[in-house]
Amino acid sequence: MQNQEQQNSKLMVGMAAGALAGAAIAMLNSNTRSKVKNNVSGMKDSVTKVAGDIRENPRETKDQLMERVKEASDTLKEAITTVQEVYNKTNSNLRSEMKDVQNDTQEAVTTVKEASNSLKDAGNKVKEAKEELVEGGSSEQEDDRNRQNSPLQ
């Protein structure tokens, strides 16, 4: 167990070192440094403004924040409802198409079985015809021989 914890600890240290190395390398680029500086400055201004608003009027700031959270929550609920409707509609359409495919497959299997039976029947009829020809031809030849060898002639 300790071995696993040590490996996890080493992994976390490695990840942190990699992140720091990546950030240090990124800071070598002057454009990146400028963007980071502007973003930090913008965040500082935003935090300062929010802190000032809270100091001046905490109740109103709280109410505004709660209203924004409620609006975001309502929007999220609408999005969830829309996704659920799309899922249900798609699932329903998919089920319908699956049933159609299943019915088509069953019809195809039935048609193949019927065709197979028809081919077997045709094969049997061909065999019967062949046997009739072979037996019929033999009988006629024997009759001809019997007539030729018959003393009545």
The average pLDDT is 84
Query: How far do the termini sit from each other?
Result: 116 Å
Radius of gyration: 45 Å
N-to-C series of helices and strands: HHH
Annotation, overall tally of beta strands: 0
Shape: elongated
Could you give a short account of the major beta sheet?
A: none
* Proportion of residues in helical segments: over 70%
- The proportion of strand residues reads under 5%
Low-confidence stretches: none
Helix/strand-derived class? mainly alpha
Helix count, per DSSP? 3
Question: Any overview of this molecule?
Answer:
- With 153 residues, this protein is mostly helical.
- The chain is built from three helices and no strands.
- The protein has helices spanning 2-26, 30-56, 58-149.
- Helix 2 crosses helix 3 (58-149).
- It is elongated, with a radius of gyration of 45 Å.
- The model has no long low-confidence stretch (mean pLDDT 84).
Summarize the structure.
The chain has helices at residues 2-26, 30-56, 58-149. The protein has 153 residues and is an all-alpha fold.
Please outline the helices and strands.
Layout: H1 2-26, H2 30-56, H3 58-149
Helix pairs in contact: 2-3
Summary keywords:
153 residues, mainly alpha, 3 helices, elongated
